[in-house]
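Dear colleague,

Thank you for sharing your sequence with our group. We've completed the structure prediction you requested, and as agreed, I am returning the results in plain text so they can be pasted directly into your records. Please verify that the sequence below matches your submission; if there's any discrepancy, let me know and we will rerun it promptly.
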Amino acid sequence: MGKSLLSELTHRSYSKIKTQSGTRTLQLRVGIEARIDYHPFLDDWGDRYQSIMRTALNALQNGQSENDIEKSFQSRFDIDWAWADSVASDAKGRFDQLTTARALRIKALDDDINAGWKSVASTIELMSQQLANPTLLNMKGFAKRLMGLESKVNRLELKGVEKEELKKATRLHICFGSAKLFNAQYHLEENGYSSHYEWRVDWEKKRGGNFYSVGKGSVSGNNPVAKIFYISDDIFNIVFTVPRYLRGDYGDTVSLEFEVSGQRKHNLLYALESGKPVTVQCFRREHKQDKWYIHLTTYVQDVPTVSSRNNGCIGIDLNAETIDVIYIKRDGNPERCRNAISFPIPTGTTGQKEAQLRDIVCEIIKLAEIYQCPIACENLDFSTKKNQLRHSGSKEYNRILSGFIYDKFRSYLVVRAEKYGILILFKSPFMTSIIGMIKYMGKYGLNSGSSAAMVIARRAMGFREYIPQQWLKTLTAFFRPEDWHDAGFAGGWRRISAWLKKFCIRRPQLFELDIVLRFLLDSLVSESQKKTHGARKPGGRDKSAGRRKGKVNPTVGQVPLEREQARATNIGAVTVAP
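Please find the predicted structure tokens below.
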């Protein structure tokens, strides 16, 4: 059974060390980043470390274990045990990522291929009908569409070959240094290089400049080979144990200083004093004049949860254009003094989108702090839909779905909520839009997104959304017996959604539910009569005197006369606007 969405996004975990009572305490993983002073050791060890790590990754693919790598690499590359342990751990993490990436790629290809062949089959059927009836309209652009169909078939066949090759492959492939820069060596002048040696310098630089050390709380400095110490004010000191093969150049240790302030300083001091492991990663940033930075990963005390369902709940609905937020009180009704909030979906570059998303998340968390209530968000998975985008009909929908930022929003929301003790609840988005529009959009004057967010919040608080009695009484003849079970979720809400879609009822029209109900009733009766008339048996004047017997509709289970009587009875329950 797979992990839940919250368990994948959370930074909360249990400590390895048990308390005196034998229990493990909750802790929160935090990251601390700062700029570090430059030293030639960083370049030399960063480049060499990446080379050793790539060798370790190949060893894992050849069947060696982490322990084998840790033992053999100490003498092979003349490095300390702790550095070999970090190399093995880093390589194992990369290996697991590549394994997962290959499985996801195979799934994406499978979804793409299946959707593609269905699209090809439907296109062939349509073009066959057009060819059988060669009118001017049917044959317009027929040759061009036929060429497009042939191109799609060829592409699907190539995708199928790629999928089979991935399944049969025994090795995982990755290009360290980016494939774009690798291919630049074959077109030096076009990429601004005068010689292969000049390209080689950039290639080696791109593949290096990064090293990693696993923390350990039981040693001095909370790390075996990258020890962290507090000096004074906001200044900290990191002492690197130089690998054996470099000690002739740099000595046994290299000491560098960095500055950390604010809450990050308090987190780091707590980790150092509490004996929490501090994992260190040093890396060079090319877009910041090749300056070196240090990133520390450690654990702090878990923030106690301050939110409670007794204080209500905040619901969030993510749409293609907006992020709608609404606060619901304990009784399930919205707060009158505060209207629903709608944030536009961020646009711009990747960095701008992420910055705007973080601002939106900050506003939502502030609202949850004010009410001290949990936050409910819909649990959506668009991975399969994204894999099938090429074959769907709407280019507008494809653009929105492929560029959407559900995953980033949810990850930012969970991380920030955990820091402030706010509980995050992920709930199924089943029929939230339909339920919200029918029950709450017109009642509270909300838009469709805010009404759906209200349903999500109520669902998180344990409320059940029954089909309104007015709809049941008016359309009772068209519901099946099983549609009444489980508050309508057995099929009633699905049937209503199908009717709204079938008869092209738009969202703004649902503000006038009486008119919509009357229109649905007339449309369903008219449709039922057409089906009944088409199923009549031929009668004669001698047998029926011109009167033909109606056939019982197996779907509804009522004869037309009985349905008309039910309609006459139920229309009185509907108030039609003049």
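Summary note from our side: Residues 540-578 have pLDDT under 50 and may be disordered.

Kind regards,
the structure core
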